[in-house]
Automatic annotation (TrEMBL):
This is Putative sieve element occlusion. GO terms for biological process: phloem development. It holds the Pfam family SEO_N. InterPro entries: SEO_N, SEOA. It comes from the Eukaryota. Residues 1-181 form the Sieve element occlusion N-terminal domain. The lineage of its organism: Eukaryota, Viridiplantae, Streptophyta, Embryophyta, Tracheophyta. It comes from Rosa chinensis.
């Protein structure tokens, strides 16, 4: 999933390849599956890296899977800010997926009655693209952080974009809930 060499162009191509592989899935599933694959890949790598010194089989599997040697404890404080930035970006990405899930739950309503829902649902493919692009960038950053190379890969453009998407989705959820509330009031008065 990570990009080598790290660049926005390669992250874009990787994102399109992921979207192509997940063509048959819903937009929410595409984002969720990508994040799940990322979590599984990172978790497996972390476990193999931890076990490689004490378990011969883990060491062999780690070599076959090209699991990087994790940072020495003395190097962790130097990279603390990068790790925190990465953690916050992953959390924001998860929140975007949760918002998309909320829109899917609201899709039981007719977009004619809830115009805000139509606007949100039309934009979800673009939001999922940026979600997957951000996950790819995070995977690349983890690879860089766990290697001995001193490459720089700035996550701030991805962070800015995913936070913009998150804020936009939250605002649109508020709009939709207000519209649904108004609709329910009308239905209540109509049947009373």
């Amino acid at each position: 999933m990570q990009c080598k060499p790290p660049s926005e162009e390669i992250a874009h191509k990787t994102t399109l390849a992921i979207l192509n592989k997940l063509l048959k899935y819903s937009w929410e599933a595409k984002a969720s599956l990508t994040l799940a694959a990322f979590a599984m890949e990172c978790g497996e790598s972390w476990l193999l890296a931890q076990l490689r010194e004490s378990d011969y089989l883990a060491k062999s599997i780690a070599i076959l899977k090209r699991v990087p040697i994790l940072l020495k404890p003395l190097e962790l404080p130097k990279r603390k800010q990068s790790i925190l930035e990465l953690n916050n970006l992953i959390k924001a990405t998860l929140q975007v997926i949760e918002c998309i899930d909320q829109f899917n739950k609201l899709s039981i309503y007719d977009p004619k009655d809830v115009p805000g829902l139509s606007i949100a649902l039309d934009h979800i493919p673009v939001d999922v693209y940026w979600t997957i692009m951000t996950v790819v960038a995070c995977a690349t950053k983890i690879t860089i952080l766990t290697s001995d190379e001193n490459k720089e890969f700035d996550l701030s453009p991805y962070s800015q974009k995913i936070h913009y998407v998150l804020n936009k989705l939250k605002i649109q959820l508020i709009v939709c809930r207000k519209q649904i509330g108004g609709l329910l009031v009308l239905i209540f008065f109509f049947f009373e």
